[in-house]
Amino acid sequence: MASLPRYLAPQVQRDLERKMVFVAGPRQVGKTTLARSLPGATDGYLNWDVDIDRERILRRELPLADLWVFDEIHKYRRWRGFLKGLWDGRRDGQRILVTGSGRLELFGFGGDSLQGRYHLLRLHPLSVTEAGVSDAEALADLLRLGGFPEPWLGGNEVEARRWSRQYRTRVLEEDVNALTGIRDLGRLEEMMLRLPDLVGSPLSINALREDLEVAHRTASNWLDTLERLFAIFRLAPFGAPRIRAVKQECKHYHFDWSVVRDPAARFENLVACHLLKWVHFRQDTEGRDVELRYFRDVDGREVDFVVTEDRAPTLLVECKLADRPVDRGLRYLSRRFPDAQAIQLALDGRRDFVTPEGVRAMPAIDFLRTLA
Q1: First to last CA, the chain
Q2: What does the pLDDT look like over 153-205, one tens digit per residue?
Q3: Is the pTM here over 0.70, yes or no?
Q4: Partners of 124 in the beta sheet?
Q5: How far apart are CA 92 and CA 8, in angstroms?
Q6: Is the torsion defined by CA of 324, 328, 332, 333 positive or negative?
């Protein structure tokens, strides 16, 4: 199966000249393929899951290569200390790349022993731009198949569904088992099956724990685990003193949007993934204080997505399946924040216009192609 060049590759090569690079992201999103595509990576590649490679790591018998690539090293209990020692004692010109999911993302928080020694880059599924999607028909294919390389490049919806089922099993049996203390995998799988039906609405942990018949803390911890393993991501509500916004319940989305059955929710999930990819790239490569949130107020007005920079809204996005009058929630929030770009997307839309208030309505494909 052919592979696509990944958008992070140039940044990885630049960052490797200065620090260790950690590439984190969902399993099977293409981290290993990206790593092995770099010049010189093949000679220095070691995978913790391969017996002979694991023995070499434990014995400190590393390849004679300018670039060491450690894949799945986070499964080694003392991996932080191991990497710290390698970096502090490295020879001139030695570069270190680490790939993995879940635990690497925890390095985004302070207090670990590797602070100042690495750059964290988050790899996302394929987007419209990266997949080369150029028209509405191809966008419909991306919506059906999802953005993970294997099902997208395979191009078969049945095989994509089989891949998605196997993906869930591997997350449970390999990642959850290896990286957490969770033992009730059956109930956790029930949560994973229930969550796609809740996409697009604020997620009530209390309602979820009642459905699963578990404690509130258990349900909350399981959601944290799924987020840390890149199965889902959550968006906090956007609030400001001049709008009566809700301030508690998050919305959630899946990196594999193909698991979402409702067409409107699946489209919203796809847009969420595109926007999060754009936001994470700006955070990771430019250090910008950008965030992705959503808006909902006590009067029931909603806007699907709010991108903020330095805590001020810069982009407001509402999603529709077809051409519709501009949503009242988007009109309302646009009036409150006139400096923010306001856009209503239509998956099957044909119209492209701007309202007197400055809100633009446009086909989704035209907007998504701008999120490089």
Answers
A1: 24
A2: 999 999 999 999 999 999 988 888 777 778 888 999 999 999 999 999 999 99
A3: yes
A4: none
A5: 25
A6: negative
Q: Whose CA is closest to 187, among 218, 156, 232? A: 218
Q: What is the pLDDT of residues 96-128, one digit of tens each?
A: 999 987 767 554 444 567 888 999 999 999 999
Return mean pLDDT, the chain: 92
Q: Which residues contact 318 (CB under 8 A, 6 or more apart)?
A: 303, 304, 305, 326, 327, 329, 330, 343, 344, 345
Residues 357/335, Cβ–Cβ less than 8 Å: yes
Taken in order 180, 181, 186, 190, is the CA torsion positive or negative? negative
Element (H, E) at 307: strand 302-309
Q: In 17-156, which ranges are continuous DSSP H helix?
A: 31-36, 51-58, 79-88, 128-131, 136-145, 149-154
Instruction: Please answer whether residues 256 and 269 qualify as being in contact, where contact means their C-beta atoms are separated by less than 8 angstroms.
Output: no
Alpha helix segments (H runs only) across 213-360 = 216-228, 263-286, 328-336
